[in-house]
Amino acid sequence: MARLADYFVLVAFGPHPRGSGEGQGQILQRFPEKDWEDNPFPQGIELFCQPSGWQLCPERNPPTFFVAVLTDINSERHYCACLTFWEPVESTQEVVCTEDAAEKEEEADEGGQARLSSTAPAQPGQLFAPKTLVLVSRLDHTEVFRNSLGLIYAIHVEGLNVCLENVIGNLLTCTVPLAGGSQRTISLGAGDRQVIQTPLVDSLPVSRCSVALLFRQLGITNVLSLFCAALTEHKVLFLSRSYQRLADACRGLLALLFPLRYSFTYVPILPAQLLEVLSTPTPFIIGVNAAFQAETQELLDVIVADLDGGTVTVPECVHIPPLPEPLQSQTHNILSMVLDPELELADLAFPPPTTSASSLKMQDKELRAVFLRLFAQLLQGYRWCLHIVRIHPEPVIRFHKAAFLGQRGLVEDDFLMKVLEGMAFAGFVSERGVPYRSTDLFDELVAHEVARMRADESHPHRVLRHVQELAEQLYKNENPYPAVAMHKVQRPGEASHLRRTHRPFPRLDEGTVQWIVDQAAAKMQGAPPAVKAERRTTVPSGPPMTAILERCSGPHINSARRLEVVRNCISYVFEGKMLEAKKSLPAVLRALKGRAARRCLAHELHLHVQQNRAVLDHQQFDFVVRMMNCCLQDCTSLDEHGIAAALLPLVTAFCRKLSPGVTQFAYSCVQEHVVWSTPQFWEAMFYGDVQTHIRALYLEPSDDRVSPSQEVGEAQSQDGAPSALDVASEQRRLWPTLSREKQQELVQKEESTVFSQAIHYANRMSYLLLPLDSSKSRLLRERAGLGDLESASNSLVTNSMAGSVAESYDTESGFEDAETCDVAGTVVRFINRFVDKVCTESGVTSDHLKGLHVMVPDIVQMHIETLEAVHRESKRLPPIQKPKLLRPRLLPGEECVLDGLRVYLLPDGREEGVGGSGGGPALLPAEGAVFLTTYRVIFTGMPTDPLVGEQVVVRSFPVAALTKEKRISVQTPVDQLLQDGLQLRSCTFQLLKMAFDEEVGSDSAELFRKQLHKLRYPADIRSTFAFTLGSAYPLGRPLRVAKDKGPSFRTLSRNLVKNAKKTIGRQYVTRKKYNPPGWEHRGQPPSEDQEDEISVSEELEPSTLTPSSALKPSDRMTMSSLVERACCRDYQRLGLGTLSSSLSRAKSEPFRISPVNRMYAICRSYPGLLIVPQSIQDNALQRVSRCYRQNRFPVVCWRSGRSKAVLLRSGGLHGKGVVGLFKAQNTPSPGQAQADSSSLEQEKYLQAVVSSMPRYADSSGRNTLSSFSSAHMGGHGKWSSVRASGRSSGLGADVGSRLAGRDLLSTPHTNGAPPDSGFLRPQRAALYIIGDKAQLKGVRPDPLQQWELVPIEVFEARQVKASFKKLLKACAPGCPATEPSPASFLRSLEDSEWLIQIHKLLQISVLVVELLDSGSSVLVSLEDGWDITTQVVSLVQLLSDPFYRTLEGFRLLVEKEWLSFGHRFSHRGAHTPAGQSSGFTPVFLQFLDCVHQVHLQFPMEFEFSQFYLKFLGYHHASRRFRTFLLDSDYERIEMGLLYEERGERRSHLACKSVWEYVDRLSKKTPMFYNYTYAPEDTEVLRPYSNVSNLKVWDFYTEETLAEGPPYDWELAQGPPEPPEEERPDGGAPQSRRRVVWPCYDSRPRVQPDAISRLLEELQRLESELGRPPERWKDTWDRVKASQRLEGRQDGRGTPSSLLVSAVPHHRRSLGVYLQEGPVGSTLSLSLDSDQSSGSTTSSSRQAARRSTSTLYSQFQTAESENRSYEGTLYKKGAFMKPWKARWFVLDKTKHQLRYYDHRVDTECKGVIDLAEVEAVAPGTPTIGAPKTVDEKAFFDVKTTRRVYNFCAQDVPSAQQWVDRIQSCLSDA
């Protein structure tokens, strides 16, 4: 029984002590005056009586009633029922109290008036003060309080004849039962009667109608938000004008939270004076009068619910986690069914007659029932996760949160996580976790109704029925006796408050009241104390928990098959069947991603542990550890599925013997997981184990059979065995019956159990936290968790965060160096903190705790000593767990500099490598090793993904191609450790993103970087691979230079330099005024006297002007070498002049080959022989060259065969050069005579170029570009050099801006298509100078309009470099994109502007092609003349001349324009330390990309394939060949590179020149050949150049992970599959099927085109028949020829015509095969065997059949010098014999010309001895000569005996033969 009311208080209005306008409450009287012992009087009650403040009122208000709730320091709630009424203010009080009252009239006779008329209205000016009757109680009986206070007020107002003291005394002494559903009738002695009903169960809250009202006011969604906010500890504030409403809303919200109790600040009605409480940092539920809404505006983190407006405002910074789905939506639906039953029927066509909604009280219970069900669903199975840590003297219970979340499948759920971490849930566990107590509705629901709730989920009406059943129970709990509600209480009359009261509320007699109270107390003392009779029982646990929503866990749904695989693998391991285990291991590791498989693994491993120990051999140990690591790596730090918990006993059980007395346990290999450094994990484990042991204490020994690794949260395995909670419940029941001694004994037993477990766990923790090598600080780096545990015990740091911290960890974490870094200290502190926490919670005495603290450091120290021995021994073990390192295949001569460092190759953002886009499994990450050789950086390894199988992954690039190297810190893919890594990016578009294995020390990684750097930037170019490869010299010593017949290279270079100095030193210049020649002289070569005038220097220097016949011997040698050069061969082909001694013939030519630069004195970066106008003397060139940057004066590099226009190239102009000249006045003035002679020379030079061209149209219609401009350039602006006089002005366009990509061509050609060829009219300049816009600013045109300047804007080399960097990043990003999409690649491609630069180059080139084609010459004079100039000039020639589109021609083009004309390959490729700062600038690669674009648009015009371009693109940067080394011919001569191949020093080992290599390879395989080659002879190509027409070159994006880049042919695997032959053992032929992966295999090689396949097949058949195989080229040409023959109408089938057609005249490169590669070549590449290089065919049968002659010739041709030059020529037989095609070989060594029937013939048909040759002269066709050949292709060789008539296929090859034979003769 309990007192109904503790105190009765009378509070009245009193003046404020500081005299302010507001008053304050004063307690007039309180009863009893002494505090009760068990319940002191609550302070501050006067504030709560008038929450809005004490104020006077001008009119009499009706009485108000509300109940305020106060919470005391012990969290006890006190209900203060307040009834307030108003009384008139007495005059004295009025004057003192308020200022405004003083102004009012004073009342004269308040009493007199009242007697006259009891109902008269109050006088005007009268003020009323509030007075409050307060009842303070710990019971919540609102209605009884309302009635009782109402009765007291009624007695006072109505003046009833009842003693107030008696009523109050009775009220204070009335006692009521607390609970149990009893009914009590009370009377206060005023003829009243009230019935008090107590709820059936005390623990269920009483809500009356408050919940229903709350929903009515706010709606479903808002209430659900408030519900979640209160549960997740947010601040909730209610606003309303009604205090009673505020109290009800708060009561309703609390009722919804049941079974959790709200334990934070709870103030349903907050007084105005205490509003600052709202800014408290703790959560709260508070109600405030809506009048103070403004004060609540600035609260940033408070959720405001406005009850009157029906809104809930959630601030932006607050996130309320919603209920987990599907509970959120289910709850919402059922709430709407309860609140709005009409909703279901609203759409029915024939709605049933209206159903009466439940009464408000019933609806309230239904809503509560919905939430009760919700909690039962949320917390279902919670009792399975309780750990009972102590039973006596009081139960200590812990909740295993991680296991609960894991098994409910709600680890990621924000809501439940926060609820479980909240205070309310902690209270729930301590209150409801107790195993033996009284139960209530919630316990029943969560234990017995779970199955029903799951079954009902999809049936709303069944859910509703269940809700209604629960509601009935809740209703019955509040109203156990519904019928008897016989209240009889006197109420005041209507409007009684308006009557003039007789008197104020009287002062009561304290004595009377106190006497009544004392009487009652005395009676109570005599009565026996009321014992609360509790029916305590064992709380039912209910069914084991299930996941809230059965989610499919993707690919890891564990089928029985998977579990079987796991079981089998483990049994294989323990049976020692290691091969079987190895086979199934990948499948097991994959299966272990699923939870069930991990549990299965733990369970299976337990079966193999006997007596807590299992000794394994090394391999078994390794397998077990790998599987454990795999299990643990997917566990979160929470270990929500108990996997780590199940493995914990195992890691201390499995071990292996390292040496006698040294055993290594599994824990030393599985430490790298975040779960071990999580305190919560250890606590949960500890409590779980303690529970097991406590249970065992009380069980009979026979019962104790349960396995210690029993997983938390799972039903016990034996049905009969009681659970720990059952045992605890039974013990709690028996506890009161035990004797005191027995109780003490049990308490001690339990405490010692806990204590022993604490020691056990201190050991376990030291096992898993101390690293094997405790000298290192790795513990702290890799498990950032522990470092942070220094500061906070429950901070969880995940691996990914540790990743970002790792780099700076050592310096910032306070553990600076390894010596002082105290691993042991950290572990001791961690364990001590753990021990403190668990022992305090488990009630271990402080003495025991101190003992533990002393033990922990000793435990740790002992363990460290044990580990030292283990560490020492384990280092001696051969590491077996890592896969074997795969050795890379090396090129001949390539040597390993650093042997393999173990690394992981990580994905880098190219999704193909990951297997994603191309389909198939992920090839990366791969595990292997990185090797550094003299030539390449190579990674070889295997994919870590077990599904990929035994695929080898190779990625490599030449060291020389390295463009960027940066250190990174990354996680290794297998065990997720944080490791140092390197990212290497190369200009061949390979990216190696590697993480070093932990076994690779930082010093090894550093050594790797240093060596790489050393190889990338060698101090001397001689240290590069191209040099060291062929030499027998070690790297260290300088190369010895062999003496040659001529002077050595050293002397040669010395001579060169000397001559250069001499030439530069002696220049006597006399200046003459220059008069341009008249028009009549324009077209023809100048006459003799003019020649003198053009050469300004009068003293002719013998050193520079000697004709070739008079050269000194050393110069002779240089000259003949120069003549051999590519440029010279090309000039002769173009008819640009010869170096013949007969000057007379040369005079008729407009141009000549000048040897002026043969000593590289004028221009270092030019070739030795240059084409200059015939009329310019050599000594004038020196001065002309000064006007140009780098002395690169204009020289002719190509002449159009059709229009005879020439293409010239030069460097940009110096300011004082032609620009200065052109800026002068048009009219000659005296000042001009003083112009620099260099400028004059220059103008003469240009004049000579113009003059050397064929005659133009007569002068009237001369040279403007206006029509070109107006038609095709849109007519904006000026071509800045167009003259206004004599032309239609304003028609030209600013070509420069057009070319710079501003204005595109006008509409007809918007796609970038070239304009029609007829657009250049005859009016045009003779010479167009294309120069840089910046350079030609303000330039005036040539006065005689012979040349025009075309200023254009071009990009600089640094822009190319920047653009290339971005292109590299786009094609190989380096880190996987967040969402890989084609758009992101295209965006970064566009940002790089690479294609825009390609577009500009093509555009300029097409313009130049047009100008040349129309007959104007063009001088390209951009930058220094070696980057963009070279690109443009080469492209122009390629587009204009079909010869350059052949293999031979392209080689010539590159040799001439790029190598001879000094493109700075070494500088642009950053080959030396000097070039390191400038970085890699791929000018040549950009040119190749342009060629690739043209190739794509004209695939039939090129003899070479796309692969050829990629091959050059790769090797121009690779430094494998010497071809692309150094910056000019001069440097190459100085290095002795250029002519060394002529001597005897040619190595038989490898090719030094890329061309030689291509030649050799072309004989073996048609790799570089384009089968669709079918050119049109006159074709000038005009490609589209718009960006939309350009394609990204697949060289940038393709990847071949099977063998690395395919450009080092020797390294490529042989043919992809063997022919289908019978196996020697007679088995069936093997299948030839093969899987081709797009990112892995090289598709062109795996699937060669049909023609290559047929050629291979032919060769195979030839070798089977024992015939010497023919070269693929001959076969191919023969087939093509016969093809063409069949197409002819007349079909002459004679053998001769077949032969004639076999060599089509337009295939210029055919039959001209330059020197053979040396023999002994290591290129045994494809099935072809090539006899000329002496490789034998594959089958030994055939070799045996070879004739002796074959063997002899094989021996003979072994000297590679025997064939200096070879090819097909037609030879006329002796008298009356026909012409025949023969294969001729020019042999300089034996000095003879031999001929054979065909190319592969081994027997010589005849020999012409060159000693007998008298002359070589042009010949004439005779009868029977080939019809299709040009006359100039005939030549005769006259010997002492007879004249031989020859005919080559075309003029250039005839010229080649003549030159070769002549040079042979001259050498003799």
Task: Walk me through the structure.
There is one protein chain. With 1868 residues, this protein is an alpha+beta fold. It is 39% helix and 13% strand. It is built from 65 helices and 42 strands. Strands 25-24-23-22-28-27-26 form a seven-stranded antiparallel β-sheet. A hairpin with a 6-residue loop joins strand 26 and strand 27 (978-986). Helix 49 crosses helix 50. It is elongated. It starts with a strand and ends with a helix. 44% of the residues are buried.
Helix-strand blueprint:
Elements: E1 2-3, E2 7-14, E3 24-31, H1 45-49, E4 64-71, E5 77-88, H2 91-97, H3 99-103, H4 110-116, E6 128-137, H5 142-158, H6 164-173, E7 175-176, E8 183-186, E9 194-197, H7 210-218, H8 220-231, E10 235-240, H9 243-257, E11 265-267, E12 284-289, E13 302-306, E14 311-313, H10 327-339, H11 342-345, H12 360-378, E15 386-390, E16 396-399, H13 401-408, H14 414-421, H15 423-432, E17 436-437, H16 441-448, H17 450-456, H18 460-478, H19 510-526, E18 537-538, H20 560-575, H21 578-591, H22 595-607, E19 614-616, H23 618-633, H24 643-651, E20 654-659, E21 662-665, H25 679-698, H26 724-734, H27 740-769, H28 778-782, H29 784-789, H30 799-812, H31 823-841, H32 846-876, E22 896-905, E23 926-933, E24 936-943, E25 953-958, E26 962-971, E27 978-986, E28 991-996, H33 1002-1016, H34 1025-1030, H35 1049-1065, H36 1088-1094, H37 1102-1105, H38 1113-1124, H39 1126-1134, H40 1143-1147, E29 1151-1154, E30 1170-1173, H41 1178-1186, E31 1195-1199, E32 1206-1210, H42 1215-1223, H43 1230-1233, H44 1237-1251, H45 1266-1272, H46 1295-1299, E33 1327-1332, E34 1347-1352, ...
Parallel strand pairs: 10-12, 10-13, 11-12, 19-20, 32-35, 33-34, 33-35
Antiparallel strand pairs: 1-7, 2-3, 2-6, 4-5, 5-6, 8-9, 13-14, 15-16, 17-18, 20-21, 22-23, 22-28, 23-24, 24-25, 26-27, 27-28, 29-30, 31-32, 36-37, 36-42, 37-38, 38-39, 40-41, 41-42
